[in-house]
Design brief:
Largest interface: A-B, 50 and 55 residues
Number of helices of chain B: 18
Number of domains of chain B: 2
Helix content of chain B: 55-70%
Distance between the termini of chain B: 76 Å
Protein name (chain B): PAP2 superfamily protein
CATH class of the largest domain in chain B: Mainly Alpha
Domain Phosphatidic acid phosphatase type 2/haloperoxidase (chain B): 395-503
CATH topology of chain A: Porin
Helix content of chain A: under 10%
Pfam families (chain B): PAP2
CATH architecture of chain A: Beta Barrel
Largest sheet of chain B: none
Order of helices and strands of chain B: HHHHHHHHHHHHHHHHHH
Keywords (chain A): Signal
Number of helices of chain A: 1
GO molecular function, one term (chain B): peroxidase activity
Strand order of the largest sheet of chain A: 1-4-5-8-9-10-11-16-17-18-19-20
CATH class of chain A: Mainly Beta
Shape of chain A: globular
Shape of chain B: globular
CATH topology of the largest domain in chain B: Vanadium-containing Chloroperoxidase, domain 2
Oligomer: heterodimer
CATH architecture of the largest domain in chain B: Orthogonal Bundle
Structural class of chain B: mainly alpha
Chain lengths: 328, 512
């Protein structure tokens, strides 16, 4: 049913880790294949992150029409994401993540469908800092990121809204620009394109504005943008951020009336969120992240509300010591 | 140095994206072929809708030596000489067996209209009505019984139309233009089929008319398809204008007969008012002590087509002759064994069982189980290089059996009114959608068994294959959690029995 399920991502940032969790929640939408922020982890540092995200919707857009559907009632999606980030060089970071996802409908519902659970997509991403330069009362950063993700298990993508992901390989390319004032205020913009391959259904006929005699479904490519403003507080131990995330598929069909969504649908959404990130002064290398987000507008997607929290731990794997802040 | 790993990653990603781009098939692609036979005696085969071919009249064509015919040939040559790229594409699309294409068009319309009406804001439901096809909701809801019936009328009308065409082709024996004049090239593999009347034009007209009656909102689209088909025939080299006009005449006459039968076959009463539906349910409860309930939210007041079991059958005289025995009583030993079986499947769902449940699901938004079996038939028809008449015969008997299967299955469903697993197993969840009609017997089982038997009769070397498929389709509903195992096994036997009525008729139609 609702393909959009997939599209929720949470924007969280591990402190020094500089990891954008959100990206990973959805391989599908994979906003998250590459970290989209502008933070870099120093060379020889590694960061572990574990986060939990709870997302749910009781309304979704069928084409442009926002509706309820008691067949599925409220659909929830829980995601547990373990991720590791490695500072290969000071200006090149690697990210690897594999989320575990569980979906289900609230009771009562009219459909009595079984939910789904399992590992979703393995994501590998690289982020590279092209430029860091003093400018006025602050610093300018320009980065680029590339990510690749692919289903880690044989989950069924053609089982919306319960499917774990879109079930297709995805390659993402992003550009990131950030400007941070010396007083801790910063603004960041990101634009990227997501190339999706085909997902394989377990049926060999489907309708997508016409007959398709194949089990392969073309998952639409998409544009992905992000705009963020934030500030560091308390000697760079606390960060507060407001963010906007947009996804816009470049092709695809609409969910048909009172019918299930499918991976070929044209998904678009605008989501706003707020994030907090905190570094514990008493435990060097340990940080916490939290995020709340709400999809405010969309096409062929659920009107998701997401809450997530996570812990990060960073250390230098050569010196075997925890690292302090870097100046980003 | 530092940028190298990044660039390499980028490069691999781009290669990967580009390499997986490919075209996905939207219809059955086949190389044009030489027919395995022309069935020259096809005009003597027994039609379905009428007794004597002579009741479809067609006047003799003008002599090929006549001025008017010569003018038609000249016009044909000119049209071929000025052939456009889009006409060439049309020739390639329609191919030398347009029976397959018109069947696929029907399957696509079924998938397009197989959308169940949702609830209104006040939780009531509005049903599609042929009297107000624009809706909302638009007409029709092309559910499996509707689909099976649509395919039956389409295929029977095509079959009868081609029998009449063959009758007059060999009676009047007008050679095809490309057979008379070597300067005219034929778009497909040459054969000696006489050209008057055009079999392609019969198909275009009869198919457009039947499908327009069944999918009234597609009238313009279907008109365009017919026009496109006729235009391709007009430059194929096989027909002159009078051949096409004669084919259209036969198409009109046969479509009229088919639609007359359809108008009075009982389908218009199949979707009943709530009072009738409630009395059917009460009768079952009085008889057996159980009754199926719709568990959707909001509850649908009436199940799908409670009186489809009363629709006129093609080859079975009395639906009660093929009604299966009663299912196990609720809480009986066999029933409880099945409860355990369903729970076991649900808690031990394997990838193979899930694949089977999904492969055969053919649910909302698809071409339904009848459509799935037509798709197989189309593939076999091409593989066997059948001519259009043979192809139409295959689909006619297939779809008569499929429609009879649907009628008999629905008779059992509403006579026994047996509950679905989600109704009687507390907390039970499924991986397939539970349909809006009683459980016993399974539509997939009856449709598939009937279809597979007809295909096994026509394609004997496929018998084992298609019977295995039918059993898999039947058990797929048990894996999906929406049917009892006895719905599937009894339904399979029911489908086989129904198909035999059709097969007996086919064996006596003069074609074997």
């Amino acid at each position: 049913m609702i393909r959009s399920l997939l599209n929720y991502t949470t924007v969280q940032q591990a402190f020094k880790c500089t990891v954008f969790l959100s990206l990973f929640f959805l391989k599908s939408t994979l906003v998250a294949q590459t970290p989209t922020d502008a933070l870099m982890m120093p060379s020889k540092n590694v960061c572990f992150l574990v986060s939990y995200d709870y997302g749910a919707f009781d309304q979704y857009w069928e084409g442009e029409r926002l509706r309820e559907n008691q067949t599925i009632a409220t659909v929830s999606r829980q995601t547990l994401l373990p991720m590791v980030a490695v500072g290969i060089f000071n200006d090149l970071n690697l990210y690897i993540g594999l989320p575990y996802v569980k979906t289900e409908s609230s009771n009562p519902n009219g459909g009595r469908f079984e939910g789904a659970k399992g590992f979703q997509d393995l994501t590998l991403a690289l982020k590279y800092k092209i430029l860091e330069k003093e400018l006025g009362n602050g610093n300018l950063y320009i980065l680029t990121g590339a990510g690749f993700s692919t289903p880690a298990t044989n989950y069924l993508s053609d089982y919306m809204p319960y499917s774990l992901g879109l079930g297709a390989p995805e390659f993402a390319l992003r550009g990131i620009v950030k400007y941070q004032l010396n007083n801790g205020f910063y603004a960041r913009g990101m634009a990227g394109h997501l190339w999706r391959g085909y997902t394989e259904a377990e049926r060999d006929y489907y309708y997508n504005d016409g007959s398709y005699y194949t089990s392969f479904m073309d998952v639409p490519n998409a544009w992905n943008v992000e705009a963020v403003i934030g500030k560091w507080f308390f000697s760079n131990t606390l960060r507060f951020e407001l963010n906007y995330t947009g996804i816009k598929s470049t092709s695809g069909d609409d969910i048909r009336a009172y019918n299930a969504a499918q991976p070929t649908n044209k998904v678009t959404f605008d989501r706003i969120g707020v994030s907090l990130q905190y570094y514990f002064p008493f435990a060097k290398g340990l940080g916490a992240v939290g995020n709340y987000s709400q999809v405010v507008h969309g096409l062929n997607t659920g009107k998701f509300t997401n809450v997530s929290m996570g812990l990060t731990y960073q250390f230098n794997f050569v010196k075997k010591t925890n690292t302090g802040f870097d100046d980003n | 140095m530092i940028t190298k790993p990044f660039l390499f990653f980028l490069f691999c990603g781009i290669i990967l994206c580009v390499s997986c781009e490919k075209d996905l098939p939207t219809y059955l692609e086949y190389e044009e072929y030489s027919f395995t036979g022309l069935d020259e005696n096809g005009g003597t085969w027994k039609p379905v809708l009428f007794d004597q071919v002579s009741s479809i009249t067609l006047e003799a064509p003008k002599e090929i030596t006549s001025q008017s015919y010569k003018a038609e040939v000249t016009a044909l040559k000119s049209a071929i000489g000025q052939m456009t790229d889009s006409q060439r594409e049309s020739l390639a699309y329609w191919g030398n067996n347009p029976v397959v294409r018109w069947n696929e068009i029907a399957l696509e319309l079924i998938a397009k209209y197989n959308i169940i009406p949702g609830p209104n804001d006040d939780d009531s439901y509005t049903l599609p009505s042929p009297a107000t096809p624009d809706g909302p909701p638009g007409f029709p809801f092309a559910h499996p019984p509707y689909a099976g019936r649509a395919l039956a009328y389409l295929s029977v009308a095509q079959f009868d139309g081609l029998i009449a065409a063959w009758h007059y082709k060999y009676r009047y024996n007008r050679k095809a233009p490309y057979q008379q004049d070597t300067s005219i090239s034929f778009a497909y593999e040459p054969n000696t089929l006489p050209s008057y009347p055009s079999d392609g034009a019969v198909l275009a007209r009869v198919s457009r008319k039947i499908l327009t009656a069944l999918f009234p909102l597609e009238a313009t689209y279907l008109q365009e398809l017919e026009q496109n088909h006729l235009e391709s025939l007009g430059v194929s080299g096989a027909n002159v204008a009078s051949d096409l006009a004669a084919g259209s005449t036969i198409g009109d006459a046969v479509a009229q007969l088919a639609l007359t039968r359809a108008a009075s076959d009982g389908m218009k009463n199949a979707q009943t008012p709530k009072a009738v539906s409630d009395s059917i349910k009460q009768a079952a409860f009085n008889r057996f002590g159980w009754q199926w309930e719709n568990l959707e939210l909001p509850t649908r007041p009436v199940g799908l087509t409670p009186l489809f079991g009363k629709v006129k059958m093609w080859n079975v005289t009395n639906v009660e002759d093929v009604r299966p025995v009663a299912p196990p009583a609720i809480d009986s030993e066999s029933y409880l064994k099945d409860v355990q079986l369903l729970k076991d499947h649900a808690s031990n769902m394997t990838e193979e069982k899930r694949r089977i449940a999904n492969f055969w699901q053919d649910g909302l938004g698809t071409y339904t189980p009848p459509g799935h079996w037509n798709r197989f038939a189309n593939e076999f028809i091409v593989e066997h290089k059948m001519n259009p008449l043979r192809a139409a015969r295959t689909l006619a008997y297939l779809n008569m059996a499929v429609m009879d299967a649907g009628i008999s299955c629905w008779d059992a469903k509403y006579y026994y009114h047996y509950p679905r697993p989600i109704q009687t197993i507390p907390g039970f969840k499924t991986i397939a959608g539970t349909p809006n009609f009683p459980s016993y017997t399974s539509g997939h089982s009856v449709f598939s068994a009937a279809a597979s038997e007809v295909l096994a009769y026509i394609f004997p070397e496929k018998a084992e294959l298609v019977r295995n498929w039918a059993e898999e389709a039947a058990i797929s509903r048990v894996y999906g959690g929406i049917h009892w195992s006895f719905d599937a096994t009894v339904g399979t036997r029911q489908g086989i029995e129904i198909a035999n009525y059709t097969i007996h008729k086919a064996q006596a139609d003069g074609s074997d």
